[in-house]
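Ticket #4471: structure export looks truncated?
Reporter: QA, pipeline team
Priority: medium

Steps to reproduce: submit the single chain below to the structure queue and open the exported record.
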Amino acid sequence: MKYIVNIGVVCLARKTFDYMAAKEIYQNIQKDLQAVEQTNYHFVQDLIIEIEDAKKAALELASRNLDALIVISGTFHLGHLVLELDKVLRKPILLWGLNELPYNGGKIRLNSVCGVNLNASNLYKAGNRQYYSIVSDKIDENWIDAVRIKAALENAHVGIAGYRAHGFFNLGVDELKMYSQMGILLDHYELSDILKTPVIAEEFQEKKSKLLDTFDVSGVTEAQLDKVAEFSAKLKKFVDTNKLTALAIRCWPEFAADFGISPCAAMSILQSEDYILGCEGDVEGTISMIAHKAAGAETPFLADLSQVDLKEDYALMWHCGVAPCNLWDGKCTRSLDTYFAGGKGVTADFVMKSGEVMILRFDSACGEYRVFMQKGVGIPMEKLLKGTYVKVRFEKHIKEVLDSVVYTGVAHHVSLAYGDYSKPLEVFAKIMGWKVIA
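Actual output as written to the record:
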C-alpha cells in the first residue's frame, strides 16, 4: 500500500484573463484529485489573485502538516503569489499549467503556461529546486508518488543493529549528510538488544507454526527450528517496541556465534509480513526499500547482482536466503537449510516468482547521493542453488548494467521489488537534485 501524503492545493489567477473559466476548471480538478488513492488534500477554495490572498492561504495551509503543494496557474498571475506561499510552506511544489482554452474574440483566455514559466523562473532564481512542472488536464501521479517517497523518508524511524558487515566499507554512511538530505536520524542498537528481548510462549509458537506451514524443515534440527522461531518473535517485538520503520542488521560474523544461527530465515518470514529489514548493516539499501514501499512496492528486499551471463544476457539476483517468503515462485519447494555460516546459517531456500521487476539503490559517494535503478523481467528457472534468487533479464544488456555499477562505484546491494516504480523515482531524484544512474 502506498504511503499516505497530505497535499495542499491552490489555484492562482488574474482578473485580466478568464478567471471564471479557471475557477470552473479548478472545481473539476478538485473532484478528479480526490480519486487518487492514499492522498489527503487541503484545498484553498477561492482563487488566489492578490498578494494578501496568497499570504492568507499560506497561513491556512501551514497548519495542515503538508508534504507538498500543488500550485495551479489557472490563468497568468502576479509573480508574488508562489513566492509568498513558498516563503511560509517550504515544501515540494508542483507547478501545474492548464491547456489553453479556445480563443474568445481573438484574446488568449488563460495564458496559464506563461504563469508556470514565471513561477519556475522566480523559484529557480530564489534558489528553490524542489519544484516540478506539468501542462495537463490531469494530475501526474508520478509526482504524487515521488512526494510519497520523500515524505516516507522524512518520517521514517530507521535503526541499525550492530554495524555494517566486516569489510563492507562501501556500506558506510555519513549520518549527518543523510539527515540533511532526507531527514533521517539513524538510531544505533546493539545486537544484544534484540537477542535479550523477552518473548512469551504464544509469540514463539505463532512464529514456529508459520515456519512449519511455509517451509520444508527436514534439513534443519528441531533446535535450529526453535532458534529461528525464537529470533523471529524477538525481532518482531524489538521492531514494534521501538517503533522502527526499518532496521539494518549486522547479520554476520557475530550473529551465528553468539546466538547459534544466522537471522536469514527469520528475516524472510518477517519481511513477508511487511517489515523492512536490511542485511549486513546496509543502511542505504534499507532506505532504498523504504522508498520502494512508499511508491507501492510489495515486500522489497536486498539482493546481490551475484552472477552474470554475458552470452545469454541475464543476471542472477541472489542472496543467502533472506528474500520474503511470499515472493516464492509457487513451484519449487521452499525449504530451510544450514549450508551458510558453517552449518549455522538456517537460510530460506527458494526460487522467486517471475514477472516485471526493478532494482534500486540510494547510494552515496564523494559526498553526493545518487539513484541507481534498472528495470527487467524475472524469468523462470529451476531450483539449483541454496538461498533465494531470481534470474533477471534487464532492459539493457547485462554488460551495460554491470558497467554502470562498476564504473560509478554503486554498492553491491540493491532493493529488488516486483513492478515498475522508475517514473516516480526519476521525479523524486529531480526534486532532490540527485543524479540518476540508469
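Status: closed, not a bug. The export was complete when the record was re-opened. Leaving a note from the reviewer for reference: The longest helix spans residues 222-241.
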